[in-house]
């Protein structure tokens, strides 16, 4: 698959070579695959997005420049076989396109795809390119809402745990922790402590449920500690304070 080919290139050549790779074309293809109905290409695309954001340089988050999409020879780089030619996305910052694909993807079953999308969001938060992007806060808003939703409502234990692990990757800079976002994180921690209801967890037996619940609560403690270190003095307020008292 195209996603597997991009991943192999990144692993083989590393960040320095990847910076010369025409990654814009790869992003176009990956974002299309993120909306595919078949499970395998979609899951692979989310996994590869995570790999890609970890090697992008700071300037790689900018919109496509005039002339980008041409090979070193000056010839246009073709869209990968089987994929339509993208239209109207070239002037939209890549970090926003990735955030939209991931924040939508973590809500779309099956669980394997959701898990990979959650993991990729955690990788976005660790990415240097994301942290220096002028669009990071707009992207963060979409990603945070999506993660908090899955962490507190996903029926699958593994998806919940992965969403919480991604929340633990939130940057510590104050700009990512206004009161509204800090309160959202705390409310999510409080709402997630019990895990999914037994009937929602499907075929998980009591022993598995106990193990998953222990792992979930361990990750939630990490997020709670991050909240305590980063939340502004005015947090928690209102509903978040009530949720904390009731937890």
Supply the key terms.
11 helices, 0% strand, mainly alpha, 247 residues
Describe this structure in words.
α9 (179-192) runs parallel beside α11. The protein contains eleven helices and no strands. Residues 61-77 and 83-88 have low confidence and may be disordered. With 247 residues, it is mostly helical.
List the helices and strands and how they pair.
Layout: H1 2-18, H2 23-33, H3 39-55, H4 94-105, H5 111-126, H6 128-132, H7 136-153, H8 157-167, H9 179-192, H10 206-230, H11 239-246
Order of helices and strands: HHHHHHHHHHH
Q: What is the overall number of helices?
A: 11
**Share of helix among residues?**
55-70%
β-strand number = 0
Rg calc: 19 Å
Largest sheet: none
Mean pLDDT: 79
| End-to-end Cα distance | 46 Å
Shape: globular
What structural class do you assign from the helix and strand content?
Answer: mainly alpha
Low-confidence stretches: 61-77, 83-88
Relative strand content: under 5%
Task: Provide a brief overview of the structure.
The chain has 247 residues and is an all-alpha fold. Helices cover 62% and strands 0% of the residues. Helix 4 packs antiparallel against helix 5 (111-126).
